[in-house]
Design goal:
This protein is α+β, with helices and mostly antiparallel strands. It is about 20% helix and about 35% strand.
């Protein structure tokens, strides 16, 4: 079954949690006890409708304040697709939570309150999705029932977002606009009679038609070794396999491979998944591999096809979102979490702080504070290899693959 990972974003009270709750309700994905709890709580609050936000707001503070604070992951399925939704906070102080949720998603839903239109947080949410190279962005213009389902208001919001997209650096993004009412259910799962001027798909139909893709912009086969399998049994006494997840491209039995960083070479002898063997493994597969030669391969090494070796560097530049209360500063030492390896790094230069409203950058800042996004230059204590093709360091790779930690705090970026 097709699996689609989605992140949500929106300002406070734009209706993210209500929208997800509505989808769960209309797809009959809520358990009976959960539905009864929502009905009872809605009555206690004096509502004459079901408060669907209660389906996702799990923390007591979230339910009391009516806001999303932490990232909640929601799982549900339709006959066509399985979904994993990261319901991320919208407030500026939780930017790091949104970056975490969006960094592993292939699509994002940005909610806009039809009454308020595009606000400062909308700029930030769109910027982060652009920075992380999220390919499919759905702009859900919510609460259309409160503006009498005005086509003019919808088009006004659409025009502002389209203007922003022209200023962005990532041009391969697909942006879809859907007018809806999460509370009433208009255009969420079923088409609404209140928007005869809208000829597009419902939100759920659009999500079902999204393809399942790797979130990594990798063009060549990359197989980071997570663990070495050495069974302690007589039957498999000589077995030595290497387990991990395959990125970028396919690998097949008989392929000549290079082991990094040692640069030793061998050939793939077998590809296994649990108790079955396969002639070929596709990108995204979690597999174990055996080699023809008894070469030294350890956790943290990477197998690549011969002739498709990535670049190996000690100095590099990265765009990062800082997620620790102690600011990032030049000349400080940190650790980079690269795959399963920890590498000591030193910030050689703080180049810019990026303004998330697309208005430009601040040159040579003194520090990078909590939730700020900026460009840095750094030097590592030992060479690391990029999961991408040579000399291609996409920001999404750094958010997903490179985690920076303070020596004392060891605060992961994700």
């Amino acid at each position: 079954m097709n699996v689609v990972k989605i992140a949500t974003a929106g300002s406070v009270d734009d209706g993210k949690s209500t929208l997800i709750g509505r989808i769960l309700y209309d797809t009959k994905s809520l358990t009976q006890d959960k539905l009864e709890a929502i009905e009872e709580k809605s009555k206690q609050r004096g509502f004459d409708y079901l408060d669907f936000s209660l389906a996702t707001d799990g923390l007591v503070a979230e339910r009391e304040q009516g806001i999303t604070i932490d990232v909640a992951h929601i799982y549900f399925s339709t006959p066509k697709t399985s979904f994993i939704i990261a319901d991320t906070p919208g407030h500026i102080e939780y930017t790091r939570n949104m970056v975490t949720g969006a960094s592993n998603s292939q699509a994002s839903i940005i909610l806009v309150d039809a009454r308020n239109g595009v606000v400062e947080q909308t700029y930030r949410h769109f910027f982060i999705n652009n920075l992380l190279r999220v390919k499919d962005v759905i702009v859900a213009v919510n609460k259309m029932d409160l503006v009498d389902f005005s086509e003019e208001k919808f088009n006004e919001i659409k025009g502002e977002i389209e203007y922003l997209s022209k200023k962005s650096a990532y041009k391969n993004q697909n942006i879809t606009f859907i007018p809806l009412s999460a509370l009433k259910g208009d255009n969420v799962v079923k088409s609404s009679e209140n928007t005869p001027w809208y000829k597009g798909e419902t939100l759920l139909n659009h999500l079902e038609n999204l393809g399942s893709e790797d979130t990594q912009e990798v063009s060549k086969a990359r197989f980071p070794v997570q663990t070495v399998i050495r069974p302690k049994t007589d039957e498999y006494h000589d077995f030595r396999g290497y387990a991990g997840k395959l990125y970028g491209g396919d690998l097949a039995v008989g392929d000549a491979v290079t082991v990094l960083p040692s640069a030793t070479k061998s050939t793939i002898k077998s590809i296994q998944f649990f108790d079955k063997e396969y002639a070929r493994a596709k990108r995204g597969s979690s597999i174990s591999i055996t080699l023809e030669d008894d070469v030294n391969v350890s956790r943290g090494d990477m197998l690549v096809k011969e002739g498709e070796e990535p670049s190996v560097v000690k100095q590099l530049e990265a765009t990062i979102c800082w997620m620790d209360k102690t600011p990032l500063q030049a000349s400080e030492k940190y650790y980079i979490k690269h795959g399963v390896n920890d590498v000591q790094a030193k910030i050689t230069e703080l180049k810019t702080t990026i303004r998330t409203d697309f208005s430009g950058v601040e040159e040579a800042p003194a520090k990078l504070a909590l939730n700020e996004i900026g460009e840095v230059s750094l030097k590592v204590s030992k060479p690391i290899y990029n999961h991408q093709s040579k000399n291609q360091y996409h920001v999404r790779s750094w958010f997903y693959q490179v985690n920076m930690m303070s020596q004392n705090v060891r605060q992961y970026v994700q």
